[in-house]
Sequence to fold (100 residues):
Amino acid sequence: MRDQPSLTTSTGKSWLILGGILSLIAIGVMVPMLDSPPAGLALFGICAIVALYAGMVIVRLNAHPGRGMLALLATFMIAIAIVGLVCVGVVAAATGAPVY
Fold:
């Protein structure tokens, strides 16, 4: 399980591509929620996702290639998913929309 190329020998480019796609999807879901209660939560989520993706880019450009860099990129991508899911869930719950 730990001997996967994406976690051991990758250059990190695939993490940036997938992280960018995940970020765009999460932001695309949150943009229509900007006017929904609680006030500012969707905007916070968008800003947090942009900051996390910027962190991915900074790590990719400045860290030494290897397992440490790849682990950080994976951590940032997981954080993007969690922030997006929590923000969308809270906004949906506050508006009374069903959350599946």
